[in-house]
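stage 2 :: seqdesign
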């Protein structure tokens, strides 16, 4: 499944993994959210409801461009810097063509829609 995200004139896509949380996210599309800066390596967007945590667990190979869900807060996490797995983090997919739009600082309306 592929998701298109857009904010501040940027459009980028992500491939979702085949896991229950990613499927739950896809079932909510289309979405209108708000994306904002958090820390020095990520942007976040709160979902209208929490996703299922079925099938979650520890993962490795964390990389810039990962799209995750932080279950305790109910938000999407877009990583544009290095990070390490933390309890409650579920990897949903990967950005397709880099993370450059995420370097734009500020709070913006974010649209998300399922492409396939």
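stage 2 :: out
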């Amino acid at each position: 499944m592929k998701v298109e995200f857009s904010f501040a004139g940027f459009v980028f896509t992500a491939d979702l993994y085949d896991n229950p949380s990613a499927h739950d996210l896809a079932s909510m599309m289309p979405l209108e959210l708000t994306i904002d800066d958090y820390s020095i390596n990520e942007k976040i967007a709160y979902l209208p409801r929490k996703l299922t945590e079925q099938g979650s667990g520890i993962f490795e190979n964390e990389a810039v461009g990962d799209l995750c869900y932080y279950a305790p807060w109910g938000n999407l996490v877009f990583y544009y810097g290095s990070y390490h797995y933390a309890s409650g983090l579920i990897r949903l997919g990967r950005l397709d063509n880099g993370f450059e739009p995420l370097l734009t600082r500020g709070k913006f309306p974010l649209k998300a829609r399922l492409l396939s």
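stage 3 :: structure notes
- The longest strand covers residues 31-38.
- The chain has one domain: 2-114.
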